[in-house]
Amino acid sequence: QSVLTQPPSVSGAPGQRVTISCTVSSSNIGATYDVHWYQQLPGTAPKLLIYGNHNRPSGVPDRFSGSKSGTSASLAITGLQAEDEADYYCQSYDSSLSGVVFGGGTKLTVL
Amino acid sequence: QLQLQESGPGLVKPSETLSLTCTVSGGSISSSSYYWGWIRQPPGKGLEWIGSMYYSGNTYYNQSLKSRVTISVDTSKNQFSLKLRSVTAADTAVYYCGKFLYGSGRNWFDAWGQGTLVTVSS
User: What is the pLDDT of residues A25-45, one digit of tens each?
Assistant: First the structure.
């Protein structure tokens, strides 16, 4: 059972805005550690999408944005495009385990 | 631009040891800024962190795998390796190596290898 809980799937039509939630259920993460997001296109390796809750690496379109409040984080995608269809994972750090934890992943379908 | 490439057998027999190597190019594995790590993904499932290490030897392992895992580094070859002992079918997965930014509030993977599928079967 992941300590980071994501919805299994979300969907949206081209041009729409979708959000993917990531709820932290461990007191060892809580509000202390940042949440990061990865995009995994079909058949490829994950790619860093958002780090430190809301920062975008170079090359990531500003259609992607992240936020975190307390024990909940969200990834928002605006102006949805067919190429955004992928699996999205949140990730944080569990201090008690000295380890990385991933959410279960959310499959985004562009209708 | 730094790149990572996994290599190793694609088929391992049950109870044996899975051994993979990650070769780093375009940068030094001995950089003081980075850790290095392994992540796996069973077919059709999510990501699972296996462990991370610093080039000097500090290692951190997933508690659920700790008794079976060893991650080591060979700075002369700019490589780091994963050994997972006593494998079962449940260890069948795509294994990724990655560059892990850690410390000073950082704890994320900012570069990944392409991944390699390892199947555990007799």
Answer: 876 666 678 999 999 999 999
